[in-house]
Specification:
The complex is a heterodimer. Chain A is mainly beta. Helices cover about 15% and strands about 45% of the residues of chain A. In chain A, the strands form 2 sheets. Chain A has an 18-stranded antiparallel beta barrel. In chain A, strands 10-11 form a two-stranded antiparallel ribbon. Chain B has 4 helices and 13 strands. Chain B has a 13-stranded antiparallel sheet. Chain B starts with a helix and ends with a helix. Classes of the chains: A mainly beta, B alpha+beta. The interface between A and B is large, with 75 and 77 residues.
């Protein structure tokens, strides 16, 4: 009887508990249901797609075989400080650039799946008219007042299922690094405004014959012969980025034409594999950076060493991290202070890119260039070379407002603590519409133990650019 | 004895009432999602895509793309070329989308301005795809095992019966990777397609609404021909993206060599 009573009591308890659970559950369910219904009612908004003003660019009507793109822009710079100027000339403090720019690119589809590209750019800098051409050196007027130049001009096609040929003026960007160069030596750079030219406009195209042989979808072999020898574009005498008080000596530029003797040659084996990329690179080329040398008549000339380079790159993706490594061994480097010697150098780069923050990329790269058989006299001007040259670069980009606002920060320094000089550039770009963008930014330079950076430390400036792409 | 029988009956009724909403379902949420996953969506696909980005003032920006995709077992190879606007034209995007969540996708970007193929680290899929309201995770198939499902109720969407299913990330890593704390998906019962979804965004107290505005059957395969994704906060639309598929071709036996960095660099 006692057991039965106890049993009855348990049943009543369980029934009551279940009833409470049911009521509570129903209440919670009803509340959750109300909330869910409220949320899913968000679908019933009227369509906004048929909305308002279009921000797209102009529609073009061109034949199927021709694709024409380009941009026009207006770029201005404002120098914040006074700096040294050649005798009887003015410096560029204040408004230092007011440049109208145009870029044009035509892509043509040719028979048998071949294609061609003709691209070029031009600019005119109104600042020299505004501030008086007589106030500037002939060198800066020649180099910076206006420019019209062909960029990429090439034909590209397949010789067989596994061989591609590309002939003409082109850019070949080797390596994994974005801001520092180790194996990426085939194209010279535009260094007229160091730190101001971003990576997309930095490399200068040269005329090459390039053959790619694809072993499969992962591995390829690339052979290149460079028929046009072209070196870095440098600040002209009179520019605030030109570091000396006198014009530079003549520069000797080989003109190889069809002669194999002066052409540059390069070879690469590239693998694109699951989770990582790898390449082995080799080249026989001219140094894009000059050294001073006395010629047979005793005149000082700017000469470019003939270099042999072997190197390699690795790119490994691990989660949100991208690890980069590059190395190159260079032989044949020449210097003014050691006129009868040729030196070797080992460059090693390590880098990391992190993409774990939303719409953000952070890239940190560092390179050490070690000169073998070092002589202390190389510390002296004009060489100013150390046994170990360390350089680092940090790049941060972030997109906001659904990719309409782009923030970029780039900083780079020479020396482990940037004691030899550095610069930082920050810019913000807003896409006003699909075609029109506005960029506003500032760049700051710090001098250091290296003569060059010390001479440009007062070149801080703010810049603004309007660009319409079509 | 009568009292005992009455008590047991009452308990049974209460317990049954408690269970009825769940036991009455003949099919589980997981089974439905498995059928969604197993649905024939075509092995190979070529399509023109138009992505319309609409800001809260109603201003529109348009991205045009040509896309190719190919199934390789459970994995998907995908190649996208951007055709417009001018500032992203010729940009190419190659993805080897591995179904297994344990393996990171292989992704390469060809940036015409840099003339360079760049590998992308891709573990985080919550970032916006080309500034749209679609994230990279929205553009790929979800891994079934990475989510816990619960069947909520049946609803009608545009006159068609749908299951309403709640999907919760299986753990914090998955939540971080997809960027959603919860999703509620509407699965059409006749064709096992997700035609609507609500995603609770992990950061910023935002809610995203996915709506398949237009469905088409091409060569027997159902395709969402117009997809709408809007991002809202406190019931206000912050931004909206309409993705339209045009000139869609299925099962054209695309050569696997197309999905290579060689093609990425050469362009269309």
């Amino acid at each position: 009887m006692t057991i039965k009573r106890h049993y009855n009591w348990r049943i009543w308890f369980l029934t009551l508990a279940a009833a409470i659970c049911l009521v509570a559950d129903s209440t919670l369910l009803a509340m959750a249901q109300d909330k869910l219904d409220e949320v899913i009612s968000g679908f019933d908004q009227p369509s906004e797609e048929s909305g308002k003003k279009n921000k797209q660019g102009l529609e073009r009507r061109l034949p199927e075989w021709l694709d024409l793109t380009g941009s026009v822009g207006l770029a201005g710079s404002f120098d914040l400080c006074s700096h040294r100027a050649p005798p009887e000339k003015i410096d560029l403090k204040g408004l230092s650039k007011l440049r109208t720019e145009i870029d044009l690119q035509a892509d043509l589809k040719l028979p048998s799946s071949w294609r061609a590209r003709v691209a070029g750019h031009g600019f005119y800098d109104w600042i020299f008219l505004i501030r008086g051409q007589d106030n500037f050196t002939n060198e800066i007027l020649d180099e910076s007042e206006y420019e019209i130049e062909f960029d990429e001009v090439y034909v590209l096609g397949s010789l067989s299922e596994s061989i591609d040929l590309k002939i003409g003026r082109q850019i070949v960007a080797w390596g994994t690094s974005e801001s520092l160069r180790v194996v990426d030596m085939l194209n010279p750079l535009d260094q007229r405004e160091p730190g101001m030219v971003d990576i997309e406009d930095l490399r200068l195209p040269v005329t090459m014959t390039r053959l790619d042989y694809y072993l499969n979808n992962s591995w390829s072999i690339t052979g290149i012969a460079v028929q046009e020898i072209r070196f870095n574009k440098e600040p002209p005498y009179g520019s605030d980025f030109y570091p000396w008080d006198a014009p530079p000596p003549e520069e000797e530029i080989p003109n190889p034409g069809f002669s194999l003797k002066d052409q540059e040659f390069a070879l690469a084996v590239t693998g694109r594999l699951t989770g990582w990329d790898v390449s082995l690179n080799g080249a026989w080329l001219y140094d894009d950076y000059w050294h001073l040398e006395k010629d047979e008549q005793g005149s000082i000339m700017r000469q470019h060493s003939r270099l042999a380079m072997v190197g390699g790159t690795v790119h490994v993706a691990m989660g949100n991290w991208l690890l980069k490594a590059e190395t190159a061994f260079l032989d044949g480097l020449e210097y003014f202070n050691l006129p009868d010697e040729k030196k070797s150098r080992l460059d090693i780069l390590a880098g990391v890119e992190y993409l774990g923050f939303k719409d953000t990329a952070i890239t940190l790269e560092a390179v050490n260039r070690h000169l073998f058989d070092y002589d202390e006299c190389l510390r002296n001007s004009p060489d100013e070379i150390r046994e170990n040259e360390f350089r680092s670069a940090l790049r941060i980009t972030r997109d906001f407002l659904n990719d309409t606002l782009h923030l970029t920060f780039v900083g780079s320094g020479i020396g482990p603590l940037c004691e030899d000089g550095s610069f930082e550039r920050a810019q913000i770009e807003y896409d006003w519409s699909d075609g029109l963008s506005v960029t506003l930014g500032a760049i700051f330079y710090q001098g250091g133990d290296k003569g060059y950076f010390d001479s440009i430390k007062d070149n801080d400036r703010i810049f603004l650019k309007f660009e319409y792409s079509f | 004895m009568k009292r005992q029988i009455f008590s047991l009956t009452l308990f049974g009724l209460v317990f049954a009432a408690f269970l009825i909403p769940y036991q009455a379902q003949a099919i589980t949420a997981r089974e439905i999602m498995e059928k969604v996953d197993a649905r024939d969506d075509g092995d190979d696909m070529i399509a023109d895509q138009e992505m319309i980005l609409i800001d809260k003032q109603g201003y529109k920006r348009i991205r045009k793309m040509k896309s190719f995709s190919k199934d390789k077992g459970r994995d998907t190879l995908r190649l996208i070329f951007f055709l417009a606007p001018a500032d992203v034209k010729r940009t190419g995007f190659l993805t080897f989308d591995y179904y297994s969540g344990d393996e990171d996708d292989d992704q390469w970007l060809y940036l015409p301005e840099l003339k360079k193929i760049k590998r992308i680290a891709s573990s985080d899929k919550s970032s916006a795809f080309m500034g749209s309201d679609f994230s990279y995770s929205d553009m790929t198939k979800r891994v079934i095992d990475e989510w816990k499902y619960k069947l909520l109720k049946e609803v009608e969407v545009r006159g068609k019966k749908c299951w309403l299913i709640e999907a919760i990330p299986a753990n914090k890593t998955i939540e971080d990777r997809y960027g959603y704390t919860k999703s509620v998906v509407f699965v059409r019962q006749d064709i096992y397609m997700v035609v609507r979804a609500v995603h609770w965004v992990k950061d910023g107290k935002k809610i995203k609404y996915f709506d398949m505005k237009k469905l088409e059957q091409i060569d027997g395969i159902w395709l969402g021909a117009e997809l709408d994704m809007k991002t809202t906060k406190n019931k206000k639309t912050l931004h909206r993206t309409v993705l339209k598929f045009k000139n869609v071709q299925f099962n054209k036996k695309i050569d696997k060599d197309l999905f290579s960095t060689r093609q990425l660099e050469k362009g269309l």
